[in-house]
Write a structure and sequence with these properties.
Layout lengths: L7 H9 L6 E6 L2 H14 L6 H4 E5 L6 H8 L9 E6 L11 H4 L6 E8 L9 H8 L1 E5 L7 H10 L4 E2 L1 H11 L3 H14 L6 E2 L1 H8 L7 H9 L3 H12 L7 H19 L6 H8 L8 H9 L2 H18 L9 H13 L1
Parallel strand pairs: 1-4, 1-5, 2-3, 3-4, 6-7
Helix pairs in contact: 1-2, 7-8, 8-10, 9-10, 11-12, 11-15, 12-17, 13-15, 13-16, 16-17
């Protein structure tokens, strides 16, 4: 029986030790780990000179037949111990569950990698339990926002590069949970490091990722958490000078998530640092600072009222009951309500 809840690192470790499974079903909402695992298998199992005859990549469309995948998997390798068959975009296979027939008796010389993105294969059908008996089923889940800084730090650590806290949070807020895009931005920042420098700072993020170091939604959030009226208004005004890079709807969404998390923290059974970290699923203690700052400056009741105002503001920005107010009018009214 295959191990359940296996991590991508455990799969890579097994492959590094040449412990191969006949089938890998890689599925889930987060494409990043599916891509990285399929790439690692493609680059690691066969020697370069073996790949021409023994490595097949099938890009599925709605017209791709399951029988074609099975026929490719049932071939024998040529002058190699294994052949690798990688099935890309397997979510397009109309009768993917028919692969269960192959999974019940797979070729031991074939390594079949099924890449199923933007969802999961129904575990109640035959394919998932069939693969679990002989191979590996890996679910690639979307990272929660609180886990992004840890992903950034880990990714850069493998490249022997560090990152400042502010720069890390700026990246998390501006790029978001698209890990393929995040990896691309991090690679760009690593390449942009001056000779001899091994740490990314906020200035570099501002110059290379297009986020203002001083006037962005993250800085606004920090000023709001501290209930700093003058600074909050100055940042909002500066953000409005570049509304294309700082759309009000996105600012409201960020503030909504922030205050929703504060509300969640107020109801934590244990409000110690460790208790809040666990309750909010945060990985780094510095991620907690703004939340605890806000909890000192806002009551639970005020937080609940702000969440209601943010919902109302989102609707007005989208045209509901906004009258003749401009986006700037609506945002300044919101900020006044939050801070007073």
């Amino acid at each position: 029986m295959a191990k359940t809840n296996i991590t991508h690192r455990e799969i890579i470790a097994q492959i590094r030790q040449q412990e191969y499974k006949p089938i890998y079903l890689l599925m889930g909402e987060e494409a990043y780990y599916i891509d990285r695992l399929s790439e690692y298998i493609a680059e690691s199992v066969l020697a370069p000179e073996e790949r021409d005859f023994n490595q097949t990549v099938i890009y599925c469309t709605r017209e791709t037949a399951v029988a074609d995948v099975i026929n490719s998997a049932r071939r024998y390798p040529m002058m190699a111990k294994h052949q690798v068959v990688i099935v890309k975009e397997a979510q397009n296979l109309l009768k993917i569950d028919e692969l269960a027939v192959y999974a019940q008796n797979p070729m031991q010389t074939t390594i079949l990698v099924i890449c199923y993105k933007n969802g999961k294969v129904d575990g109640r059908k035959k394919l998932v339990p069939a693969v679990e008996k002989v191979g590996i089923v890996f679910e690639s889940k979307k990272l929660k926002d609180g886990m992004l800084p840890q992903f950034i730090a880990d990714y850069l650590r493998r490249k022997q590069v560090g990152i400042d806290e502010r720069a890390c949070q700026m990246l998390a807020d501006s790029v978001g949970a698209d890990l393929n895009r995040m990896a691309g931005e991090l690679d760009k920042l690593v390449l942009a490091l001056p000779t001899g420098q091994t740490r990314i700072n906020a200035d570099m993020v501002g110059k290379n990722v297009g986020v203002s170091k001083e006037f962005n939604v993250w800085e606004l959030r920090a000023a709001v958490a501290a209930r700093n009226v003058e600074k909050s208004n100055r940042i909002l005004w500066q953000m409005e000078q570049n509304a294309k890079a700082n759309p009000p709807v996105m600012t409201v969404a960020t503030l909504f998530n922030f205050f929703a998390t504060i509300m969640q923290a107020f109801y934590a059974p244990d409000r110690s640092e460790q208790g809040l970290m666990q309750h909010l699923e945060l990985r780094q203690t510095w991620q907690l600072r703004e939340y605890t700052t806000a909890m000192r400056n806002y009551t639970a009741m005020k937080t609940m009222q702000i969440i209601g105002k943010l919902r109302e503001t989102d609707a007005r920005l989208k045209g509901i009951n906004r009258g003749n107010l401009t986006d700037e009018d609506i945002m300044h009214e919101l900020l006044f309500y939050i801070l007073h």
